Amino acid sequence: MELTDEHLDTLAGLAIEVPSWAYGNSGTRFKVFATPGVPRDPFEKIDDAACVHALTGLAPSVALHIPWDQVDDVDALTRHAAERGVRIGTINSNTFQDDIYKLGSLCHPDAGVRKAAVEHHLACIDVMTATGSSDLKIWLADGTNYPGQDDLRARQDRLAEGLATIYAALAPHQRLVLEYKFFEPAFYHTDIPDWGTSLTHCLALGERARVCLDTGHHAPGTNIEFIVMQLLRLGRLGSFDFNSRFYADDDLIVGAADPFQLFRILAEVVRGGGLEADSGVVFMLDQCHNIEGKIPGQIRSVLNVVEMLARVLCLDTAALAEAQRRGDVLGANQILMDTFYTDVRPRLAQWRPERGLPADPMAAFLASGYQERIERERVGGVQAGWGA
Ligand code: LRH
Ligand code: MN
After folding, report:
1. Overall pTM surpassing 0.90 (yes/no)
2. Among 6, 183, 264, 335, which residue has the least CB neighbours within 10 Å?
3. Which residues pair with 136 in a beta bridge?
């Protein structure tokens, strides 16, 4: 089936949220490579994110990470984003870098440390109120490295208590999205290791608590699209952290390591109503461009999601349902594979100029001189990074 105008209208409604930290320096424990032109502050990160939106037309919001993106004047930052045609989206908390959090944050054995972690989240909610953001995203590094190091059950009870205090502080239009990850930096157990644990806490908290699914946070061999299906079925999928990986939490460009997996995930998103305006599902990227260009990396990422979603929209769902109904195993699989092999890129390259966008956003960026300009202008100061 070809890409129709109706499909393109659906695509035009897609809003991908880019992470501010993708524009800063990032790396591994072995090395964080500095890159000329990297932003020195959240204002410059937003400039680069706005550049990606201007070229792709489908990345209208920027997720911030606190304290990496802490500024004295949040209103000025919010205005700065609006003046550049983007808005500030998800606010990400960070209780994984302060020394007090060595043994955990909301799950820490010490009540004083747990109190500090709750207060950090209350401060993030204040930022949300100032920026007009609706989502507080919580990922906790909390866990242990050795069996017996702490009481697994007691940690869950502490976590539930802390999350309840944070949830109670949210305004009626605000949500809490709880991200899980099966390991790292903890190497024996992680307190929120899987979707079941995140969902358990979300159900205990209330309607405005949803699960965040980071595509790099599953044990090898996990059928991620099954989890997507189930969370959509339960109305508890809050957001994606899109990226890809060959081994662990590699945070590579979405669709780069396993395009077919991205196709299968997006097929469940569409089948489960995740593209509907009222689904409440946020499509965020969570990536680190350790060696490749930061802005080109983000442009490629947005294009990968758009192109793969366009393929999924071409799926002949009626023919597929019919083949499934009559038990035609290979027939049904063939329909999906043919759609996956559909090349939608020529039609998308035609579509973009129809929307006042460059046919080839990457070529347009490389020809724009933007990279050369920021490398010239952004001299001095401290390049942004994870500060780890
Ligand atoms: C943890 C994580 C989380 C963010 C961080 C930048 O691995 O996926 O979403 O806070 O990366
Ligand atoms: Mn993530």
Report:
1. yes
2. 6
3. 91, 176
